[in-house]
Predict the structure of CBS domain-containing protein.
Amino acid sequence: MILKKLYRTENIIKTTPDETLSSIMPYFNSSHDAAFVFDSESIDSKSGELLGVINPYYCLIKKSYPANTKARHCLIHPPKIDINTPLKKVARLMTESKIHYLPVFEQNGGGQKFIGIISARRILEGVKDADELRTPVGRFINRKRPLISLLENDYISRALTLFKKHGISKLIVLSEDLQIKGILSYFDLISFLTMPKERQGSMSREGNKVPLLHTHVKNFMKTKVLSLTQQDTLSDAAKLILKNKIGSVLIFDNQSNPIGIITTRDILSTFAGKHNFLKIDVVAKDLSAKSIDMVNQFLTIINKRFVKRHDVERAKVIVKEKHGSGVFEVIVSFVKRGSSPKVIKEEGKNLFKILKDLIKRSKNITSNK
């Protein structure tokens, strides 16, 4: 798939330099959206000059501009995408700029002409079946950075504290009996907090924003929560995001516990090559949910250790229980360039200890020339 088949020329959010943030904000659905700023005299012209873009992340989160700020005072200059730019580079520029709508140009004489935009969703549609996205999401989840949650009856003030303390953009919302009820986005709160006082409605008292901070989280959370298991792939996540027009998917382990969130940005980053994975073939039969979780964590460690080892091409992991005896056998083989596979094997009743020992042994065996 190439950019020429994915960029679009219609349904573009356009605005002029004198429009205010409060008039532009209603068109945004996430912190990654963008409004394209043109001179008022050429905004309806196909040959109009692009002055820059308005992006919620930069305007509301990074800079905190007041709602009455005019576009000319808070526009930024995004990466300019040539119509012949490879999709992987476009995906990389999107993740680095945190803007999921970028302007597309073509050469016009000695300069460049604005011809449309490319969106993250369009890229996902084009690459959803790409080889780079066949990686199980369980290997992508960073377990060292756990999900942060709060209760649906907690106040917005607590949510803002958690966002700031942990440097995250999404919180899991739970009921009093600890069932998942929804997801709260930092963007949803910031966009409301920056709204002009007269538009805060029943949440305000004479324009005072303090009552909002004492509003329950359940009034702002999104209740549509879609999920996948850690065995599903990034390709599955991309398709679910596209089908449901959402920006992220919650990931559960085999014991139905939430362990992470996969976002559109994560998928774009992987496609662009910012997250590399060692090719690991896995054979695991008749294992319990707890055992599968241990194996997935083992695979994550193996990947992190050897993905940058250019001499290791791929690995294969076989995990099986011997005829219901409670004795596990684990075989790991590494295929190195220019040499025969290196195989290590462990067995015993303590699967955790077996995998831990294999991690130590794998380091030694792959260090041999």
User: Anything to note?
Assistant: The chain has eleven helices and 16 strands. Residues 128 and 238 are 6 Å apart (CA to CA).
